[in-house]
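[step 3/7] inverse_fold.run input=structure_tokens len=283
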């Protein structure tokens, strides 16, 4: 079962659903056993036709194995139904309650939003010049939602363009600021964009980098540096990691933390400079 989450209106990537299906098939699953769920915030978004095309066009073949579900009209009522069932697991029930509250806030369903919602609806009725005919009003609202969806797609496209420019600029700045170090530059990568430098401690190499999959994060890793994490490097980096709040060791990372596009590169640069200074003092 392939689940594509579009709660934040993210546009489809090129051949996105087609690539997912092809990947699952290559893992050994028969095509007729593959199902796709497309999660949307409300009822307006649909996958673009070219999202189905990879090694072939899968749209017609998946007509009976493709389901669109919305958080607003499907998942939120379902979660409320789960909450109404008898359940002795307080942690599970608490998690469901928190997520329901999060969705209620997302859709302005909380009681505190009632007055604002009424004012906004009255404003929209005037702006859209809605009349007494509910059918005509429905047409106007549907057309406006489609316009908003198209605008949203273009905003996401511009956002991705700006992100790509960020990665290229960051890689170039590292090349300029640290000419004596090997630069990690995956600014053109479709997935796991990253950039940083490769440093060395007593003959053991490690990387200091910033990377993005769904979120953006930075820290110390072994990317482009070594085949495994090296205990002596970890010991050397521990004081800096403690001071910088880097934790969560993984097979690829000595330590890392989430950041953002607004401050991620500055934090990376600070981490690089602190590490170079510590290397100099331990030379």
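[step 3/7] decode complete -> sequence:
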């Amino acid at each position: 079962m392939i689940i594509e989450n579009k709660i934040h209106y993210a546009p489809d990537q090129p051949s996105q659903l087609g690539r997912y299906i092809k990947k699952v098939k290559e893992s050994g699953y028969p095509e007729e056993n593959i199902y796709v769920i497309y999660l949307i915030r409300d009822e307006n978004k649909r996958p673009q036709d070219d999202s189905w095309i990879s090694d072939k066009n899968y749209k017609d073949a998946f007509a009976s194995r493709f389901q669109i579900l919305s958080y607003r009209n499907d998942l939120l009522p379902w979660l409320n139904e789960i909450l109404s069932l008898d359940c002795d697991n307080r942690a599970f029930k608490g998690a469901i309650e928190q997520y329901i509250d999060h969705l209620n806030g997302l859709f302005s369903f909380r009681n505190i939003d009632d007055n604002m919602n009424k004012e906004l609806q009255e404003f929209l009725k005037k702006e859209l010049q809605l009349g007494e005919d509910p059918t005509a009003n429905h047409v106007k609202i549907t057309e406006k939602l489609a316009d908003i969806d198209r605008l949203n797609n273009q905003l996401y496209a511009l956002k991705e363009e700006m992100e790509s420019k960020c990665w290229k600029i960051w890689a170039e700045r590292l090349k300029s600021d640290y000419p004596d170090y090997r630069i990690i530059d995956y600014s053109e990568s479709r997935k796991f964009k990253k950039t940083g430098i490769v440093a060395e401690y007593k003959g053991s190499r490690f990387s200091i980098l910033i990377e993005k999959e769904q979120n953006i994060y930075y820290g110390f890793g072994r990317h482009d540096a070594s085949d495994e994490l090296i205990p002596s490097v970890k010991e050397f980096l521990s004081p800096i990691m403690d001071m910088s709040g880097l934790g969560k060791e993984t097979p690829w990372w000595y330590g890392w933390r989430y950041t953002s596009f607004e401050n991620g590169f500055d934090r990376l640069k600070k981490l690089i400079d602190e590490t170079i200074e510590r290397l100099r003092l331990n030379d």
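[step 4/7] annotate
The mean pLDDT is 92.
The longest helix spans residues 134-177.
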